[in-house]
Amino acid sequence: MKLASQFWHTVCRHYRTSRWLHIPPVEKSESNDQLRDKLEYTEEVIKRAMTLYKPNEMMLSFNGGKDCTVLLDILARMTPPSMPLGAVYVKSANPFEELEKFVDDCVQRYGLQLRRYEGVLKVAFEQLIAEDSQVKAIFLGCRRSDPESCNLYELEPTNNGWPAMMRIFPLLEWSYHDIWNYLRSNNLPYCCLYDQGYTSLGDRSSTRVNPSLLAYDEKLDKMTYRPAYELENVRLERFNRDEHGQASVSGSKQ
Q1: Residue 43 burial (10 A CB sphere; 0-12, 13-18, 19+)
Q2: 142 pLDDT more than 60
Q3: φ/ψ (deg, to 5) at 37
Q4: Which CATH architecture has domain 30-168?
Q5: pLDDT of residue 3
Q6: Domain ranges of the chain
Q7: Which residue from 69, 96, 164, 196 has the fewest beta carbons nearer than 10 Å?
Q8: Within 10 Å of residue 99's Cβ, how many Cβ atoms?
Q9: CA angle, corner 189, sides to 185 and 7, nearest 5?
Q10: pTM assigned to the model
């Protein structure tokens, strides 16, 4: 983690002036120590996948959200520099401009080989498999607390008519606060919308600021939205989302 921290200090200096990213201050606390077991668990899941599949047979499903940003960073640390990371991004019908820009920034920062699709997630994955039959497994940033994800296994084949591939869930046992502790303790950039009262990001038409983060700011003398990492009741994480989105590859709502 020391090398990763030094690396991200360099990244922070480069991106600090960007209006699309927020680079939070490093916070040292006991909660960071609690990440150790979660991180070891995640690395073991990834190592297991790497013994089953070749690098060109695995891809990351990346949409610029907080969870897959954490997963991207962990995968990047575990992947040799000579081995570019493959990822797939499915653009929603009405995406946030800030989120689109953040995805582009991550492509440059991590050297991602990103395949871009639009429309329905299931159809996009069908296109992916049709274009590249070598793809046999996909990394997903789902957590067990996500909708319809409580019974998932770390490695689980697709079902219900989805394109045949192995789904890999390295972050299943992570909590909402684990995700934010990892991002902030490692000074990782994340999409700036999370600092504007959004706790979960989806399509612009079905995503709004989380009302539970609205609070009075004494310095500004007005009501403002606190950042996502200050959410206390994690059950309200998706309180800002209309749960009628398209089905996701995890079996939950996207």
Answers
A1: middle
A2: yes
A3: -65, -40
A4: 3-Layer(aba) Sandwich (3.40)
A5: 43
A6: 30-168
A7: 164
A8: 24
A9: 70
A10: 0.83
